[in-house]
Specification:
With 82 residues, the protein is an alpha+beta fold. Helix content is 16%, strand content 52%. The protein has a four-stranded antiparallel sheet, covered by helices on one side. A hairpin with a 2-residue loop joins β1 and β2. The protein is globular, with a radius of gyration of 13 Å. The two termini are 15 Å apart.
Length: 82
């Protein structure tokens, strides 16, 4: 964990939603959608500085649609600490 890494305090968490969260033997696969790439980056930053997750790796992002809105779909992997 990087003690100098910070997160954006005013970020609205409703700008990102999870579509799936699968964990097996402490390895997590998370898929979701966000309004922008910056929202995906903020989510990754928060997972990376969390004491509950480690080895956070963004696997892919792609443009998608949610209803009539353009969004960014993403997949990531990480390990959970418990």
């Amino acid at each position: 964990m990087n003690p100098y890494a910070g997160f954006r305090e005013g970020w609205d968490v409703r700008r990102l939603w999870l579509k799936s969260f699968n964990e097996h033997e402490r390895v997590c696969e998370i898929a979701g959608e966000a309004r922008t790439n910056e929202d995906v980056a903020e989510f990754l930053r928060r997972l990376s500085i969390s004491e509950l997750f480690e080895e956070v790796v963004l696997e892919r992002t792609a443009g998608a649609t949610a209803g009539t809105e353009s969004v960014i779909a993403f997949d990531l992997n990480c390990r959970v600490r418990y």
